[in-house]
Amino acid sequence: MIRTSKGQSKIGALNIKDVNILITGGNGFLGKHLVEEFKNQKAIHIATPTSQEFDLREKKACQEIVKKADIIVHLAALVGGIGYNREHPAQMFYDNLMMGIHLMHEAWIAHVKKFVAIGTICCYPKYTPVPFRESDLWSGYPEETNAPYGMAKKMLLVQAQAYRKQYGMNSIFLLPVNLYGPGDNFDPESSHVIPALIRRFAEAKGRNQKEVVVWGTGKATREFLYVKDAAEAIVKATIKYDKPDPVNIGAGFEISIRDLAHKIQSIVGYEGRIIWDKTKPDGQPRRMLDTKRAKKEFGFKAHTDFDKGLRETIKWFYSV
Fold first, then answer.
1. What crossing angle do the helices spanning 29-40 and 227-240 adopt, rounded to 10°?
2. 168 labelled as ligand-binding?
3. Burial 269-292 (b: 16+ CB within 10 A, else e)
4. Residues 61-80: tens digit of each pLDDT
5. Is the peptide bond prior to 188 cis by the omega test (within 30 degrees of 0)?
6. Domains defined along the chain, listed by start
7. pLDDT category, 1, cuts 50, 70, 90?
8. Is 177 assigned a ligand-binding role in the annotation?
9. What does DSSP assign to residue 132?
10. What is the pLDDT of residue 11?
11. In which pathway does it act (predicted)?
């Protein structure tokens, strides 16, 4: 059934206690923390189906999964670091695009009350003025190694705005910066920079290696948000935010990869040398978000100290 009228109206602040919440990717890194935060806010009915149960690249799976949902938070994604992105560009584009397109369309057909699409900082152009403002999203093409992933995710913003305009669908789009924290992915084939560095220095220390090789020049900058803060932001936006404009979710600071590496090296206690492999890419030159809109619209501001967050992440790594 295709509805062409504006059949879904704005609903404002939500009472999440008595609704069915579906979180795709709810068993992943951010997903587990998001489930915990929803429960902290008294949500009772939370579904977190796995990719083994429902392949969201398939339309029929999306039709089935949305049937009982009142709110959908779409976290599910194929993600990886620079190396993984370079080796799997087609897969990064296709898988992420198809999951989002099918899921949001079927959510609209099923009269889902609210769709929360989770984008990525990789949506931004390669050379975006710092701090990145939401108005800069369309001022250029993303950094090449991240472009297939970033563009696939950015299409969720286009779809959300189009469905809101034509159908009145209550859909919002959030742009988290790079996340870190307990439960992160430490797989050397697909991990992001913080878990990759933690593992590299920890293993080098354990093996008494004299040096550790790190990709790039170390000059690129990144911003990092503690995963529990990210979960808090998503829940706040789910409850309070109802506008077509995208919203940055970040901590509002930047650190060079060189300084990050030395910071992690110090916390881990590795005393060897760092060798910078300048034949490998740096990725996007700089990253830092303007976070004013999140503060204004739903009262979110990151509160976890970066050094404290790193120590908690490293502590978790050693515990598993």
1. 50
2. no
3. ebeeebebeeeebbbbebbbbbbe
4. 999 999 999 999 999 999 88
5. no
6. 16-180+223-252+286-303 (3.40.50.720)
7. very low
8. yes
9. B
10. 43
11. Nucleotide-sugar biosynthesis; GDP-L-fucose biosynthesis via de novo pathway; GDP-L-fucose from GDP-alpha-D-mannose: step 2/2
CA dihedral 290, 174, 21, 65 (to 10 degrees): -160
- The residues, any chain, with a CB within 8 Å of residue 167's CB and separated by 6 or more, are 3, 4, 5, 6, 7, 8, 108
Give the pLDDT mean for 106-126.
97
- The pLDDT of residue 8 is above 70: no
Tell me how many degrees the CA angle 118-93-188 measures, rounded to the nearest 5. Answer: 80
For the chain, give the number of residues. Answer: 320
Q: Dump pLDDT digits (tens) for 161-200.
A: 999 999 999 999 999 999 999 999 999 888 889 999 999 9
Provide the 3-class DSSP secondary structure of residue 72: strand
For tokens 């040096």, the residue is: 211
CB atoms within 10 A of CB 8: 21
Active site residues: 149
The single residue listed with the structure tokens 């742009």 is: 175
Cα–Cα distance, 212 to 10 (Å, whole number): 53
185 is in an annotated binding site: no
Task: Indicate the pTM of the whole model.
Answer: 0.92
Q: What is the pLDDT of residues 263-283, one digit of tens each?
A: 999 999 999 999 999 999 898
Q: Is the pLDDT of residue 2 over 50?
A: no
Query: Which residues are CB-neighbours of 243 under 8 A, at least 6 positions away?
Result: 172, 297
